[in-house]
Amino acid sequence: MKERDESFQDIVKEEIESLFFEEIVLFFSVLKWVFLAAVVGVIVGGATAIFLKILQISTFIQTRLHYYYLLLPIALFLSDILVARISPEAKGHGTEKVIEAIHERFGKIDVKVVPVKLLATVITIGFGGSVGKEGPAAQIGAGITSFLSDLFRFPPDDRKKLVVCGISGGFAAVFGAPISGALFGMEVLFLGRVLYDVIVPSFVAGIVSYQTAKLLGINYEYFPMKFEMGDITHFLTLSIVSGIFFGLVATVFIEIFRISEVAFERLKVGRYKKPLIGGFLLIIITLALSDDYLGLGLDTIHDALVGNYVPWWAFIVKTITTSITLSAGGSGGIVTPLFFVGSTAGSLLGKLINEDTATFAALGFVGVLSGATNTPVASSIMAIEMFGPKIGPYAAVVCVISYLITGHRSIYPSQRLGARKSSSIEVKIGEELENIHPIVHMKGIGTLKKIINFLKRRFRP
User: Fold this and answer.
1) How many domains is the chain built from?
2) Residues 365 and 444 grouped into a single domain
3) To which H or E segment does residue 150 belong?
4) Whether residues 287 and 157 fall in one domain
């Protein structure tokens, strides 16, 4: 009996000691990462605010210049040579290179990326290149946090976490959406998986970065939706249809972008002639249509989200101009063009089904983002932050379906596969998306046929 009591006492003692020391470690771990993430938020929010201010000045000057887009060949040439000669990591739309660095080098990024990416993006957008501002902000945030990690000699795992915080802070400060911005930084690294081990620092970095940018004078525009959905079943059905449509739009965007990249890579001309060719193509498109499809395109996004008229072909032209700009050596992000494509495609869908165009522009805004970047959770939360809680449940349906429709492809080919989108599709978990070759099993189609045959028998007159 005595031995049994002593054994019980030992067990209780071990449990108490284990609980005590575990809680102590976790407590100090939380303090450490809250502090580090807050510091990252202040630095990245400040750097992003500076970047956005410079961008505002360049676009203001642009509006005062007639035929500014005639200098696009020179702008793309300067952007390309600046990146190629000083910091090749700054190439393209930013986020892609950060994802690659996190997966392959524990987030190690050359600090030269920060000034080079900022300057190359300002040059590209300033003269009309069709790119966005979030990719450079993410890359600037990642570059700064990587530099700080090396400066203070943090271990690789800590550097990786800090770089993810830098991405989250950059996205939050650019989007004006701290929660979805933080989630985007965590979710964009993998298809079908979220990095929960960085959830606390990412949220802290995102919120602090957003507040820092606001304190430094960055203003954000939101579009609270005041719509009456009527019959819930009817609107839910429309949300499902919308999710399929926006998933197809996202798929087309990804494929046109890939084709454009391959086409420019295979052009049998000198390296520095490619930006000139791309610039002249953009000039031709602009002269044939208008300059609405150059630059950030914020005015057109605004028009779509408030229900104003936008041409039905707007999302197609923007897809082409963005693909040419980035393939020909331009520098900038790709999410703002996705917002343009999604909102204008949504406006078209609203017209086709005789519904409120502003509502469906909002659904397209987040739906195409979700499908093209494989970020359904962040995109759903963004809908609430940008457009209000009423649209939230339907936006979530749209985002999830769009995410499924795009399959195992992404505008960020360095994303790693964390989960399959269907048990009928065989893919290798952990592989980069650009290296994935899905094998489709017919059992899924067979099951669908059985369901259709059952329904035919059930409802046969």
Assistant:
1) 3
2) no
3) helix 134-151
4) no
From CA 285, how far away is CA 290, in angstroms rounded?
Answer: 8
* Tokens at 160, concatenated: 């990786």
**Beta pairing partners, 416:** 190, 432
CB atoms within 10 A of CB 108: 17
d(CA 449, CA 249): 27
**Measured between alpha carbons, how far is 367 from 344 in angstroms, rounded to an integer?**
12
* Torsion, Cα of 371, 372, 378, 380 (10° steps): -30
Give a three-class secondary structure readout of 22-88: HHHHHHHHHHHHHHHHHHHHHHHHHHHHHHHHHHHHHHHHHHCCCCHHHHHHHHHHHHHHHHHHHCH
CA–CA separation, 88 and 111 (whole Å) = 12
Residue 191, strand partner residues: 417
Q: Are strands 190-191 and 416-417 parallel, antiparallel or unpaired?
A: parallel
Amino acid occupying residue 290? S
Give 262-318 pLDDT, tens digit per residue: 999 998 888 789 999 999 999 999 999 999 999 999 999 999 999 999 999 999 999
**What range does the domain containing 347 cover?**
232-417
**Sign of the dihedral through C-alpha 14, 17, 20, 21:** negative
Q: At what angle are helices 156-175 and 178-187 packed, to 10 degrees? A: 140
Q: Pick left, alpha or beta for residue 192 (phi over 0 → left; psi -120 to 50 → alpha; otherwise beta).
A: left
Beta-carbon contacts of 350 under 8 Å, excluding residues fewer than 6 positions away, are: 356, 357, 358, 359, 360, 361
Non-local CB neighbours of 133 within 8 Å, separated by 6+ positions: 51, 52, 55, 121, 125, 174, 296, 332, 333, 336
127 vs 59: CA distance, rounded Å: 8
**Per-residue pLDDT tens for 37-87?**
999 999 999 999 999 999 888 888 777 888 889 999 999 999 999 988 888
- 76 burial (CB, 10 Å; 0-12 / 13-18 / 19+) is buried
d(CA 137, CA 307): 29
Residues 203 and 292 in one domain: no
CA-to-CA dists, residue 26 to 31, 32, 195, angstroms: 9, 10, 18
Instruction: Give the integer Cα–Cα distance in Å for 11 and 16.
Output: 9
Q: Is 265 exposed, middle or buried (0-12, 13-18, 19+ CB in 10 A)?
A: exposed
CATH number reported for the structural domain that contains residue 169 in this entry: 1.10.3080.10
State the CB neighbour count (10 A cutoff) for residue 34: 16
Q: Is residue 193 part of a domain?
A: yes
Q: Which two tokens stand for residue 294?
A: 């150059």
Look up the pTM and report it.
0.91
